[in-house]
Write a structure and sequence with these properties.
This protein is mainly α. It contains six helices and no strands.
């Protein structure tokens, strides 16, 4: 019985043999004399190394390092870069702390400006009030106000005395007695009107009761 191999195993063997043939061909042709980072490192690692080299201004590409005589110098440079990166990572928290302190200082400064502005406004109000009082004093405002108050009080006193005199005259005059008589007559008229309205209401009630009794009498006569 023949055992058939799977297609996947065949393909993997074929691809592996192809890669080995390509590598052997390159080495035999003399295209590569030494192992380099481009052949040894993955693509994403080489891109990251290239980005670091551009950031720190390195004269050679970190993603294309060959194992030749200058390897030691390049390793030193790489160590220097790593030390700088570590220092940056350590300095970052300190920078954040400094930024926080700066923000707090700015907030405190804003509060100080606010309090100073409020104090300045209050002081300005006091200054304006004092200035207005001084101006009024210079213009003789208090003296004029005192004279005006005296005149007003005199007029009020005269008006009060006049009203009291009129009230006393009205009470002791003929007009007062006539007014009292008129008030009595109005009271009598009011009582008369009240009596008339009560009589009308009583008459209406009696008429209603009479009609009811008459209707009852008629109904009882027809019942027999």
């Amino acid at each position: 019985m023949d055992i058939k191999k799977s297609e996947k195993s065949k393909k993997s063997k074929e691809s592996g043999s192809d890669n080995n043939e390509v590598v052997e061909r390159i080495w035999k042709a003399g295209e590569v004399t030494a192992p380099t980072a481009t052949l040894m490192l993955p693509e994403f690692v080489s891109l990251k190394l290239k980005e670091l080299g551009e950031r720190y201004g390195i004269s050679f590409d970190l993603d294309n390092i060959s194992l030749d005589g200058t390897m030691a110098e390049k390793v030193k440079v790489i160590r220097k870069i790593s030390d700088m990166a570590v220092a940056d990572s350590k300095l970052l928290p300190e920078m954040l702390k400094s930024v926080k302190k700066l923000l707090r200082a700015e907030i405190s400064l804003a509060k100080y400006h606010k309090s100073v502005s409020q104090a300045a406004l209050k002081h300005q109000e006091k200054v304006d009030k004092t200035t207005s009082e001084l101006f009024l004093k210079m213009a003789g405002y208090q003296e004029k106000a005192g004279k005006l108050e005296l005149k007003t009080n005199r007029k009020l006193t005269l008006m009060q005395k006049r009203s009291e005199a009129y009230a006393a005259y009205h009470e002791n005059s003929v007009f007062s007695s006539e007014a009292n008589l008129i008030d009595v007559e109005f009271e009598v008229l009011g009582e008369t009107a009240k009596t008339l309205t009560e009589g009308k209401e009583k008459r209406k009630r009696l008429q209603g009761q009479r009609k009811v009794k008459l209707q009852q009498y008629i109904d009882s006569a027809y019942e027999d």
